[in-house]
Write the structure tokens for this entry.
Amino acid sequence: MGYIRVPLFYKIKTGVLALGAQSKGAFCIARGNTAYLSDSFGDLGDVGNFRKFEKKIKALKRELKIKPDIIACDMHPEYISTKYAFEKVKSQNDQSFGLVPEVKMIQHHEAHVASCMADNGIKGKVIGVAFDGTGFGRDGNVWGGEFFTGGVKGFKRAAHLKYIPMPGSEACIREPRRMAFSYLYKIYGKNGLPRPDFVGTRNVILGQMIDKKINSPLTSSVGRLFDGVSSLIGVCDFAGYEGEAAIRLEKIISGQGSKVKGEYKFKYLKDGELTIIDWAPVIKGIVTDLKLGVKKPEISLKFHNAVCGMIKDVCIILRKKYRINKVCMSGGVFQNRYINSHIRPILEKEGFEVYAHERVPTHDGGIALGQAILATTSTAQEAFGHLRGFKRS
């Protein structure tokens, strides 16, 4: 089994085992000034993958001679890794743990940011940008388009993408067309849908699911926005593998270069202390371009530029408010080569210190490292009461 050895800028007084998330499952064991992050075992929902995961945990604990007193896991109640954490606490005969290990549930996207901080050895406060497809939020909704301020002693959610329903929940991941419908339905309503194929019995049902809040959890996910745009412009309505819609949307911009000027624009709203990032102007801009006959690669490039512009705009808003100049970026969306390569010079031009992952994966394979960090430094402990029976999506 391979693992990444990560030196820490502080000392962990007790042993900690962090169990990661669900997809791209990986664990982390830490003590003293060092954390050991395992390779990914794939989706832990697969029995074979989970057995390898459990076996390698036991092997590394023996090798390092560590009996963890803290077990860190994701907040999602349906993740196999989360259930495994509580099963180990209930077990009275597992001598490979401390006497009474404590379980700490760590918010998914905060762990992403902490993982990037540890990967780069960053102390102090940062603006954390965590963009991915799915993560259980503190309010019970599906997060994935988050901006945080703070550090390893605790983060504050400072901005996020405006919520949108996911009709059919996890079915939206397999059918990006559902997300395209949801965005259009929220803007234009059932009588103003600009795509003719979105009018019909099947789509009436989707509209009713949204209106009646039937199996339609709210999400702030940037990953779902990519899916919706990919379907909206006719690139991918049905995904055959994880991330297909977003991957194909990025692929078609190849060769556009400087031929395309401009970008779509997000709108920024205030909700108390939060900044809400409104996607409606972007969707409207895409619909207008489709009606004008603008080609798909040009629309895709303008959308990618819009996401980069949004990151810049929100970071400037938060820097002005919180006087923080360091930006850490993490999450599966930053596997997008265009976003990853273009956002750094954009932010650096604005005077930001920019950090992305170096050795640790930016996707969920690196999240266990962040969990281990926050479980031993953060003063926040999750309240189990608001963990509702949300199904994995």
Residues 3-106+363-386 form a domain with the Nucleotidyltransferase; domain 5 fold (CATH 3.30.420.360). The two ends are 29 Å apart (CA to CA). Confidence is low (pLDDT under 50) at residues 380-393. The first strand starts at residue 3 and ends at 18.
